């Protein structure tokens, strides 16, 4: 049971109402891993647009802050967007959780984004490249599942930072973002498909592990998405989708915003496919590239 006497994850608290006028994510502290990717940047801005107090925009240590949405934070002055160098290791994940809790006292949303497609052909796929794909695509969501929920279940009083709100119930949302290769073959190389299936396995196995905790876990699997608004190479592929065009990063981000919020309070273990109807129109395969 949560501290308010209701089952974990079920709250009448005004602090978690998705209908609150100051934003459905007001007060939330979020982690976005893969924030240097266009979809990661879009998700960061989506969370900020709905009132999140702080977003840790995590990138590989080699990526600069300029690749994240930190330079666009002026549009949301009450949301702190912090560039956070993150290596996909257990030690780095534990440090990230400690830093979040020590600074803000709470964690509400954890987004992981797989950005690597790996080798396109089996002949060029090596055990080393396969291992790297599994680390980036499936191991990072595993770390989120293992180490995120204990932090998400913590309650706290209202902090002294902008958009702060008290947390009086157990609440958390883990969102694993990848491609439609999570369910289909032929969308990418062998390694990408294998690792994407494994990431979806983290989501599906996580539902039982999170039972009764108030923490939900879901996946988003996207199809052809323009990365910079001018990716003409995708247009031919996307013509076979139900909408006749490639998707936009923000269209994936809006689904993440839904899954982060209380609007999806009874959604867990789902794989939200954002592909413009491509798999319905072409059930065999729609390549990512």
From TrEMBL:
Keywords: Fatty acid biosynthesis, Fatty acid metabolism, Lipid biosynthesis, Lipid metabolism, NADP, Oxidoreductase, Peroxisome, Phosphoprotein. It catalyses: (2E)-octenoyl-CoA + NADPH + H(+) = octanoyl-CoA + NADP(+); (2E)-hexenoyl-CoA + NADPH + H(+) = hexanoyl-CoA + NADP(+); (2E)-dodecenoyl-CoA + NADPH + H(+) = dodecanoyl-CoA + NADP(+); a (2E)-enoyl-CoA + NADPH + H(+) = a 2,3-saturated acyl-CoA + NADP(+). SUPFAM superfamilies: NAD(P)-binding Rossmann-fold domains. It is found in: Peroxisome. GO terms for molecular function: trans-2-enoyl-CoA reductase (NADPH) activity. Its EC number is 1.3.1.38. GO terms for biological process: fatty acid biosynthetic process; phytol metabolic process. Coiled coil: none annotated. GO terms for cellular component: peroxisome. It comes from the Eukaryota. Pathway: Lipid metabolism. Participates in chain elongation of fatty acids. Catalyzes the reduction of trans-2-enoyl-CoAs of varying chain lengths from 6:1 to 16:1, having maximum activity with 10:1 CoA. Has no 2,4-dienoyl-CoA reductase activity. Interacts with PEX5, probably required to target it into peroxisomes. This is Peroxisomal trans-2-enoyl-CoA reductase.
